[in-house]
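worker-3 :: picked Cytokinin riboside 5'-monophosphate phosphoribohydrolase
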Amino acid sequence: MKRVCVFAGSNPGTHPEYKESAIQLGKELVKKGLELVYGGSNIGLMGTIANTVLGQGGTVIGVMPTSLFRGEVVHRNLTHLYEVKDMHERKAKMGEISDAFIALPGGYGTFEEIFEFVSWGQLGIHNKPVGVLNVAGYYNPLMEMIAKAVEGGFIPSTHKELIIFESNPMILLKKLREYKPPLKTNKWSELEYK
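worker-3 :: tokens ->
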């Protein structure tokens, strides 16, 4: 594992723990010699983790559609910035250059990004680990939703393992490094598995 892609809010959120978790994760990435891949913004939790990694002497690679430069306030001091044409190209580039994925607290964009990479893992498009830093219980409802989907027969029980939930950044990175994809399971309950 060399590069970790972090999805995070372009706002700081309402609780100080959110910002503190971005700082802790940034410091842990640098301690472990890992490069940060993220959305390229200079604001919100995105900016916090990027500035932490840069401040600790680490490598930060941003990926941002040109159309978002003003809204997300593009970070101009990154190690490298990929300018892409749209959100689809952004995620494809992040997936291509990253070895693992983590979601910090965030909104619709963060939810969409982390779920896309979990879906790709479920379909076998990649075998990279996906983690969620569950800061102050922020992602507890997501854990409940996944359990409900398993209970309801929409997610095979072994596919719960496609997302690693952890509240401690150091432990989360350790779990991502040790990740082994779950055994291949038939995602489609009505089809015979081959």
